[in-house]
Amino acid sequence: MSHKNSIQSLAVFCASSDGNDPQIFEEAYELGRKMAEKNIRLVYGGSKLGLMGQVAAGVMEAGGKATGVIPDFLKTKEVVHTGLDKLITTKDMHERKLTMNELSDAFIALPGGFGTFEELFEIVTWAQLGLHKKPIGLLNINGFYDDLLKMLHKMNEKELLKKENLDILLVADNFEELFEKMIHFEAKPVPKWMNKNQT
């Protein structure tokens, strides 16, 4: 019998800016709508701005559920989304990421800036270290991540990134294909020297 992940909640990392690519902006909304159709709860950074706000709008307007996780210092009226069915306030950014990890069965990164990269690479690193076995997807809308993917392959070629760790990051340019990869993802065992249960 083939392995299949149950994804009932999905953490989405993306920009708190709109950007200037209409396709990315529209597909952020569509991602939210499709998540609601599949009855998947959105877990995200809690903002009403930018691509984050678009994903949340897509979910909420299609009757889905959304949990925002926002650090106290960002919780101003201009930033926080007040229409979510659940909002969790954390003391700092680190607690925000831990909370999002705990609440989510899987992760997707959409286009974004430094914050999106930081969240994505931290969660991939945690997977590499065996701290979780959840699927991680990169939604490469309109070729946004092409250059990053070239860089990751170069890291592998230079033997600074193992192929099995590169393969942790699942990539597709549309949600349907990415979701299929995520539900069939199976985490590889971490090396024995990294297994904290070894004596």
Automatic annotation (TrEMBL):
Tell me the keywords, alphabetical order: Cytokinin biosynthesis, Hydrolase
Which Pfam family, an example, fits this chain?
Lysine_decarbox
Query: Coiled coil located at which positions?
Result: none
Provide GO CC annotations from the record: cytosol
Cite a single GO BP annotation. Answer: cytokinin biosynthetic process
Q: What does the sequence similarity comment in the record state about its family? A: Belongs to the LOG family.
Protein name (record): Cytokinin riboside 5'-monophosphate phosphoribohydrolase
> What is the originating organism of this protein?
Christiangramia fulva
